[in-house]
Amino acid sequence: MCRSTHRIVDEVRSETTCAECGLVFDDVAILATAPPGTTSETSDGSGRGIGPFVRPGGTKRFLGSTLSLNRDGQGKRLDWHRRYEFQHLKRVMLRQTARAVDGPLDRTPARSEIQSVGESMGLPAVVLAEAEGVYRESKVRGLFRGRSLPASVGACLYAACRRYSIPRTLGEVATAVGAKRSEVGRTFKVVQRGSGLSIPGVGTKSFLTRYAQELALSPRVRSTVESMLDKARDDPELSGLSPHGLVAALIYLAAEENGEHRSRAQVARVSSVTEVTLRSTSRLVERVWGRAGLPPKDESDLSG
């Protein structure tokens, strides 16, 4: 406007203004290019980390508008042929988003099942994304041939929980997907051997944090159980026990030792083990560590 060629760039406001009349030019982009990836000591050098976590196969692959089947954008009711047209468009959208973008998989039933079961178990989105990745890899390798969908979904969810150290037992996952524990366990063994993914075991301290929080135990009891777990890791007689069963037995013994009584029924309900298993594991620990100063329990106390 003033024919001046002197412009001032304000990097704070991302504006370019005229030095003579103060005109703000609108043709300047706020962010012309993506920020360069920075590598720090705590990052993996990928340069990612901008924005929230987006689950693979999520809403970013769908259309921007929600296709309603009854009313249009102004709220008016649609006639029957327009409803049929929208139903057809919605089917096409779902089919295109579930196609071979990530491989030759028909993952729509599995994805919805993983999503619903994961929400019922309270699993974070990153674990559900990992379960979808495990399912995709196992499906490509043909590991689910002849196996039911609930068992396959349960095996992938259990594998994802173990990869992220989420304290969930195989029985809890099997109950959530509505399949037998033995069936989910066999499918998980096939996934563990044939998928080529590293599936570590869940640490006992993860179960300790979860159970202690649900039982409202004091920090003194937690520290006692942690010291017992460190000792049990080096004991050959306790090495073959189930992790959550061993943690439940140590919690029961440590609570009794520190004067915070928790019944066997309470501990068994929280840890998803039977009272018989809890009683036998507690007696085994007492027999092995009788010399370690554990208080003897009354054998006639069968009710907890």
- Structural class call reads mainly alpha
What share of the residues lie within helices?
40-55%
Overall 3D shape: extended
Order of strands, widest sheet: 1-2
CATH homology-level superfamily of the largest domain: Cyclin-like
Description:
The chain is mainly α and 304 residues long. It has four domains: 1-26, no CATH class; 65-97, no CATH class; 108-194, Cyclin A, domain 1 (Orthogonal Bundle); 204-292, Orthogonal Bundle (Cyclin A, domain 1), CATH 1.10.472. It has helices at 80-97, 108-121, 125-140, 149-163, 170-177, 181-194, 204-215, 219-233, 243-257, 264-271, 275-288; strands spanning 7-10, 15-18. The protein has a two-stranded antiparallel ribbon. β1 (7-10) and β2 (15-18) form a beta hairpin. α3 (125-140) crosses α4 (149-163), α7 crosses α10 (264-271) and α8 (219-233) crosses α9. The longest helix has 18 residues, at 80-97. The relative contact order is 0.06.
What's the short version?
This protein is an all-alpha fold and about 300 residues long. It has helices at about 80-95, 110-120, 125-140, 150-165, 170-175, 180-195, 205-215, 220-235, 245-255, 265-270, 275-290, and strands at about 5-10, 15-20. The chain is built from 11 helices and 2 strands, in the order E-E-H-H-H-H-H-H-H-H-H-H-H.
